[in-house]
Each structure stands twice: as C-alpha cells, then as structure tokens.
Specification:
With 306 residues, this protein is α/β, with parallel strands linked by helices. The chain has two domains: 73 residues; 150 residues, Alpha-Beta Horseshoe (Leucine-rich repeat, LRR (right-handed beta-alpha superhelix)), CATH 3.80.10.10. Helices cover 12% and strands 26% of the residues. It has four helices and 19 strands. A hairpin with a 2-residue loop joins strand 4 and strand 5. The longest helix has 21 residues. About 10% of the residues have low confidence.
Length: 306
Amino acid sequence: MKRLFAMLLTLSSLILLVSCTGREGPEVQSTPVSADIQTPTLEDQHPTVREPEEKTDETSDHQTPSPTPEYFELVKNADGYGIRQCADVTLPEHLEIPGVYKGCQVTSIESNGFSDATNVVSVELPDSIESIGESAFSPNMKKLICSGDLRLPGDLAGQLTSLVLTSGEFVDPAVHLSNLEELEIGSGVLEIGTMAFLSATNLKTVTIRNGVTKIGHQAFDQCKSLTSVTLPDSVLTIGMRAFEGCTSLQSLHIGKNVSEIGQGAFAGCDSLVGNITVASGNRNFYAKDGSLYTAKGEDLTNLLFG
C-alpha cells in the first residue's frame, strides 16, 4: 500500500511539471538600455576634491612689471644740475630729456654726455635746459626739438638736418646751421631774430606756426634752397632783407596782419617776382598779378626786390 502511494505521488509531480513548462503566458519584452545613459561610477558618486593649481609667473594675473631702465645720471654743477647717460645702457632712437629728474630740475646737457649713444637720431629737450656742452651728442643725432632761447654749440648746429623750435625767441646769429634741411617754428616762438638762419644754404622747407609776430632782419638771408614760404596771420613785421638771396624762392604768402615790410626784403629773389599772394582782409597790402602793392596802390617791386 505504501509502495502504491509513493508511485502515485511521483506521477502527480511529473504531471504538474509538464503543465507548468507548457503553459503560454504574455511575452515580456526587455527595455533596451540607451548608450547615452551611463551607469554612475564610483568616482561620480564620490567626486575627488582637487587642490587649486598654483599659478606660475606665466599665468599670474598680476605680473611684476619690468623696471624702467635707468637712462640718466645727474651731475651737480655751478648752475644747477646737468644730465648725461648712464653707462652700458641702450637709449631709444628718439630721446626725451626730462625737465625734472629724481626731484631735481635739469638745466644743462653735459659735455660728451650722450656722445656714445650712436643709435639716437632725434632729441627733445625741455624748456629748462639753458646750455649744451660740447660734443654732447653723437654725430648720428640729426633732429632737435628745443626752446628757441637755447644757444646751440657749433658742432651740434652743424650736424642738424631738422630743427623744431617750440618757444622763446630764436635770436642767435652765431649759429651756422649749414646742413639744416627742415625747420619748424612753433606757435610758442614770438620772434625769429636777426640773421637767425643766415646762410642755411641747404634749408628746403620752413613751417611757421601761427604765433610768430616778427621775421627779423636777414632772418633767412642766403637760404638758397628755400622754395616756398607761408607767413601766418600772426606775423606783423618782415625785416629788411629778411629773404635776400633766396634764389630758389618761387612762392610767398603774406598773412592778413602784416603791416610792415622792410626794404630789400626779397632782394635777389628773381623767381619770386609775380608769385606773391596776400590773405584777404589785409588792410595794408594786396597782390595783383603776383606783384605786391600797398593799400594806396603803390607797386613795391623795386623797393622789395631791389
């Protein structure tokens, strides 16, 4: 009996197993996992805290600027303080001399002070400079910007090809600017003195700014390369023989406030005859067919060109 019961139990288990494996049920579809969805890593769940990188000199927001080169040395002298270049420095091509250096007013350029600065081609001087020593600059220095009151030493005057006067009165007849080609008279200059540019035979270009009131006697006498001159409205007087011997002068414009022209102002300027103009509004002179007349109609050709 027990044996029959065991057989029936085994048969029942087999029937139940067959029925479970053969039953059809709803199909379960698996949802694909997108490649864009990444499983968090351990590092994402627990991010590493990094110390900020220390900036080097190349990446620093506040770099220490290079110190300005020490170009100059002060020299105490009887008249104040002179200035010269420091040893073993390279100066810029255009050199600006300070009027005040290290709290001291600079009044002079020392002899041979910048004679070794062969790369300097132009120099700008402050109005405080009262004197320039001999051989102060290299012969390569060709352009000077300075006050008209400053007396130029002979060697410097002879090497300049360009000169800009900013103020004062240029009245030094001892200067011989034999190689000068370009000249600018600034608005701060009141007077171009007697014989100021006498025999500057290479002078080709003159620019006179509004502010100059007087062209002195023989101021441009024998400037044989000068071709054109325009006198601004500020000029009141043209001195005797101011442009005598300017044989290349081919045009002259006279401003509206010129009231006096000296005898022989254009003597020997044959190319200028018939090439003079006068600003409208001048009550003393007018030009007709390139010739100059007084307000009363007197022809000044003989007076000015004789």
